[in-house]
Specification:
8 strands, single chain, alpha+beta, 8 helices, 8-stranded mixed β-sheet, about 40% helix, about 280 residues, about 15% strand, globular
Length: about 280
């Protein structure tokens, strides 16, 4: 369920979820650093909605030990900072096997876009801002490669949600048997959905996940792509606190466990931030 946290950029709008308190605390200047977790989009979306840096390192790059799992496969620990220098510092301290890239190279990275099916999940307003960013990068001399990556996005979305629900149900089965009356309607529905996912489905989903990871790597090698860009969110922050927005634009990057960072790049009407998502 959405929490009571408001968006510091405009308190009439959602800060995103579910790591809303962490993103809002950094955006409000309460702290220069806060941690969060992401199972679909719970770091990237609130970071973008609140106008801060949001980092989701590679899967298990920051240990999930000690965290009650949502999904043991998809859970990531991420964090929020004010600036890129802070994001880099925290990565060097917390991420396993962290290696700093060679920033002395004069070669501009080649940028890939998973075009068509995936990108078109964003609404028209977000796509307008995204296309402006892409055009500016091209003006500044960056090579942009548009690809058909994630053309099977509907299947990826379905499989991710199935396995996350199953693992949520597995984690909470014994607790739910004792304390069902303390669970929210959303959590109860998720547990019920997860109980319907079979073990065969689990194996199939993990096999498909490996296939998608190989497709990302193969496309990057084939086209010489160094980094992917895409919208951080499907929409601008939504008005009110009853919903937190859709994580759909973050899902395939969490499904595959690759690293992402969202950076605030624009501001719409009513002081609403807009983020650009970079993926490795």
């Amino acid at each position: 369920n959405p929490g009571p946290t408001k968006n510091p950029s405009n308190t009439n709008y959602t800060p995103g979820g579910s790591s809303s308190g962490s993103a809002a605390a950094v955006a409000a200047g309460i702290t220069p650093l806060a941690f969060g977790t992401q199972t679909i989009g719970s770091v990237t979306r609130p970071a973008a909605f609140c106008g801060v840096i949001g980092v989701k390192p590679s899967t298990k790059s920051i240990s999930t030990e000690g965290i009650i799992p949502f999904s043991t496969t998809f859970d990531h620990v991420g964090y929020f900072t004010h600036d890129l220098e802070g994001a880099e510092l925290i990565a060097s301290l917390f991420c396993n096997e962290w290696l700093l890239a060679d920033n002395e190279s004069n070669n501009r990275p080649v940028i890939g876009i998973p075009d068509d099916a995936f990108i078109k999940q964003s609404d028209a307003e977000i796509l307008d801002y995204f296309n402006l960013n892409v055009a500016q990068l091209e003006i500044n001399g960056y090579k942009i490669v548009r690809t058909s990556l994630f053309n099977d996005i509907e299947n990826i979305n379905t499989l991710h949600k199935q396995l996350a629900a199953k693992e949520f149900a597995d984690t909470h089965r014994n607790w739910y048997a004792q304390y069902a009356d303390l669970y929210s309607t959303h959590s109860t529905q998720l547990i019920n959905d997860g109980e319907k996912v079979t073990e065969i489905s689990n194996v199939e989903i993990m096999s498909y996940r490996e296939k998608v990871v190989n497709e990302i790597e193969g496309m990057m090698n084939k086209e010489g792509i160094d980094v992917w860009i895409s919208p951080s969110t499907q929409t601008l922050p939504l008005k009110g606190l009853s919903v937190t927005g859709s994580p759909i634009m973050n899902l395939p990057w969490t499904f595959t466990g690759v690293p992402t960072i969202t950076i605030p790049v624009a501001e719409a009407n009513f002081n609403l931030p807009i983020g650009l998502q970079f993926s490795g």
